Each structure stands twice: as C-alpha cells, then as structure tokens.
C-alpha cells in the first residue's frame, strides 16, 4: 500500500489519484470529512476529474447526521485494502485524518465502544462551562497514553476519548498487530505561505 500524507491543501487527494492511475491502483479516503454526503463545499472534496482518474473508496457514503468512529473506520478500510489487493490492484491511501491514517498503518485494534449519550451530554456541558483544555487535562490525568494520541484542540475527539477511558476502554485496551501489508508513506511538503493561499482560495 502507498499512503500519501501531508497538511491540509498540500495536494494529497490529487497526488493519490495520480499514483493510482499510474500504477493500477484504487484510492482509499482517510479524511473524515469526506465520508459524508453533501460536503462538497467547505471540504477538499475531489473534483469530478480526480474521481475519474481511479476508483475511490470511502467517499460520500454517510449521511451528514451519521456518526463514524476510528473503531468503524479501521475494519472498513482494511476490507477495502483486501478487496483491492484481491484484484491485484494497488491500494493508495489518501491521508487526511491523522489518527485514522496511523491507526491503519500501524495495525491498531480498537474495541468498538458504543456512545454513552448521557455521559457525552454531561461532558459537553462541562466543555461549555469550562474549556477543552480543562477536559483534556482530565483525560491526561485518567490516561496519559490516551491523551497522547488525542488532538487536544479538538473538543469532539477529547470528549470521545474521555468516553472510552471512563468506560474502561482507554489506551490500555488498544493494541497493535502486524496489519498484513507493507506501506510506503509519501509525505507532501508545501511552503506555509502557499498552503495559506490555497486554503483561502
């Protein structure tokens, strides 16, 4: 498998499609925003031209109100990798959400934990009354390893991590195994000023 990673607006989507077109590949999306239908505006949704370059997987398959977690993404992505490989095609991962990309590349095994709506509502109230920093601090106290793999600036991820830890499914229950495939990781670098220009445009 080839994984194309990089910052927002670095060109991951088009690079992955070009690689797939050149080497009989198929693209697997790992940008959480692109899982949802109707998100063409406000996201780096692939153009019609890019989508036509190679088959794409895991794009636009969820309704906007649907929830989709790392625990759901990993088996779906692995299934796509195996399906693509069974046709002797090259899986090309278009990275976008870091936790999803590295979870896939490193073979994370994450137990599916059903959302606790009551606990989530309580944590969201705490967030409104305090700050994401306060919640992240609580997460760090409860499970430093889980905190280390959670984006401290993303309230939704901090709350979800707290749900997992409080339910007894923190980092200690996440293990990594040999994913069963080799991955070449290609990192794209674009000057910061150019990235800003692309994002604004």
**Count of extended strands:** 7
Residue share in helices?
40-55%
**Rounded to an integer, what's the Rg over CA atoms?**
18 Å
User: How much strand content do the residues show?
Assistant: 5-15%
Quick recap:
This protein is an alpha/beta fold. Helices cover 46% and strands 14% of the residues. The strands form two sheets. The chain has a five-stranded parallel sheet with strand order 3-2-4-1-7, sandwiched between helices. A two-stranded antiparallel ribbon has the order 5-6.
List strands and helices in order, with pairings.
Blueprint: E1 2-6, H1 12-22, E2 25-30, H2 48-53, E3 56-57, H3 70-86, E4 90-95, H4 98-105, E5 108-109, H5 117-129, H6 132-142, H7 144-148, H8 155-166, E6 175-176, E7 184-188, H9 192-200
Helix pairs in contact: 3-4, 5-8, 6-8
Written account of the structure:
By secondary structure, the chain is an alpha/beta fold. Helix content is 46%, strand content 14%. It has 9 helices and 7 strands, in the order E-H-E-H-E-H-E-H-E-H-H-H-H-E-E-H. The strands form 2 sheets. It has a 5-stranded parallel beta sheet, sandwiched between helices. A two-stranded antiparallel ribbon has the order 5-6. Helix 2 (48-53) links the parallel strand 2 (25-30) and strand 3 (56-57). Helix 5 crosses helix 8 (155-166) and helix 6 (132-142) runs parallel beside helix 8 (155-166). The longest helix has 17 residues, at 70-86. The radius of gyration is 18 Å and the shape is globular. It starts with a strand and ends with a helix. The mean pLDDT is 88.
């Amino acid at each position: 498998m080839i994984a194309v990673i990089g910052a927002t607006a670095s060109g991951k989507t088009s690079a992955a499609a070009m690689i797939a077109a050149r080497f009989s590949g198929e693209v697997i999306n790992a940008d959480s925003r692109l899982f949802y239908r109707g998100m063409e505006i406000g996201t780096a949704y692939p153009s019609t031209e890019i989508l036509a370059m190679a088959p794409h997987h895991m794009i636009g398959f969820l309704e906007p109100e649907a929830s989709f977690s790392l625990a759901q993404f990993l088996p779906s992505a692995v299934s796509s990798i195996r399906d693509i490989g069974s046709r002797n095609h090259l899986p090309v991962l278009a990275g976008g959400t870091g936790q999803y990309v590295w979870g896939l590349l490193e073979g994370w095994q994450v137990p599916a934990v059903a959302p606790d709506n009551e606990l989530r509502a309580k944590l969201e109230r705490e967030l409104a009354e305090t700050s994401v920093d306060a919640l992240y601090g609580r997460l760090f106290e409860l499970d430093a390893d889980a905190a280390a793999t959670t984006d401290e600036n993303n309230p939704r991820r901090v709350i979800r991590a707290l749900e997992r830890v409080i339910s007894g499914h923190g980092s200690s229950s996440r293990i990594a195994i040999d994913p069963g495939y080799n991955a070449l990781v290609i990192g794209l670098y674009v000057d910061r000023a150019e990235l800003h220009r692309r994002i604004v445009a």
